[in-house]
Amino acid sequence: MSDKERADESNTVTVSRDGPLVARGDLAIDSGRGSTPELHMKVSLCRCGLSRNKPYCDGSHDAGGFRDACVLAETGEVAAADGSGRLTIRAVKNGPLLIEGPVVIKASDSGKRWRGAKAAMCRCGQSKSKPFCDGSHKAAGFQSD
What we know:
Blueprint: E1 12-15, E2 21-30, E3 38-45, H1 60-64, E4 87-91, E5 97-107, E6 113-121, H2 136-140
Parallel strand pairs: 1-5, 2-4
Antiparallel strand pairs: 1-2, 2-3, 4-5, 5-6
């Protein structure tokens, strides 16, 4: 395996302004479709609710007019781990993306960071506490595959 094929040493999820969550590291993505989790080193995940390939981003946020300044209002816990190890991201049917494992979540255009080992990330685009889930998907009638 060459250096270019290795996962980043630390797991990160970057919240893109008006766009997807970009996860990098040692990733296991459970799409919620009943298949074995897919292993990735980098993936873009939908957070607007409009993708036709959920949980993955297909660029629908542009045409759909999704807007979010990607402000991290929470600072999170101080993770005991250094951010290395497997990060599992599971798409809950008609609900959020559940992240489990050492991770740093960061805003793409600020220095704010959230560190922890467990988070629920909004993927319906309706949460008042984006990028985190606040349960708004229920009232919005969010549907996933």
